[in-house]
Amino acid sequence: MEEPVSAPSEEAPAPPAPAAAAHLLAQLRADRRATSWVPAFERDWAKALEDSRHTYSLTPLHDVVRSWQLRVAGAPAVDAFIDSGRDESGFVDLDDVLGAGR
User: Fold this and answer.
1) How many CB atoms sit inside 10 A of residue 60's CB?
2) Angle of helix 59-83 versus helix 34-55 axis, rounded to 10
3) What are the Cα distances from residue 34, in Å, to 9, 45, 56?
4) What is the rounded distance in angstroms from the CA atom of residue 48 to the CA atom of residue 60?
5) Can you say whether the dihedral through the CA atoms of 89, 91, 96, 101 is positive or negative?
6) Which residues have a Cβ under 8 Å from the Cβ of 23 and sit 6 or more positions away?
7) What is the pLDDT of residues 6-22, one digit of tens each?
8) Against a cut of 0.85, is the pTM above it?
9) What is the pLDDT of residues 89-102, one digit of tens each?
């Protein structure tokens, strides 16, 4: 008897806790970047909520929570880089390289 061949399973990340979005939003509101981050999170959340309604999947909502958790976790490293005084003014805008109509 031959055993069926199956593709290796890709382990999906565990979904965020049910209250993760509320906890994350509270963190964002308490952050010094709240004036820009809270509206951006709310836009991302609203789009993900609409996508979830159409697809009957919670994945878009989970993706928003995960991506914002990563942003919050990475913020201290970004702050440290900026505070180090490194001059990054000589960068090339991606639109200049790829063209505005990408």
Assistant:
1) 18
2) 160
3) 39, 15, 31
4) 5
5) negative
6) 17
7) 555 577 778 888 899 99
8) no
9) 667 776 777 776 55
Q: Are 58 and 52 in contact (CB under 8 A)?
A: yes
Q: Please name the residue that has the structure tokens 């919050």.
A: 72
* Cβ count near 3 (within 10 Å): 5
How many Å apart are CA 95 and CA 46, to the nearest integer?
27
Picking from 81, 64, 86, the residue whose alpha carbon sits closest to that of residue 15 is 64
Tell which residue, 75, 63, 66, has the closest CA to residue 37.
75
Write out the two tokens for 22: 């509320």
Residue for token digits 């993706």? 63
Give the Cα separation of 44 and 89 in Å (integer).
29
User: Which residue shows structure tokens 């440290």?
Assistant: 80
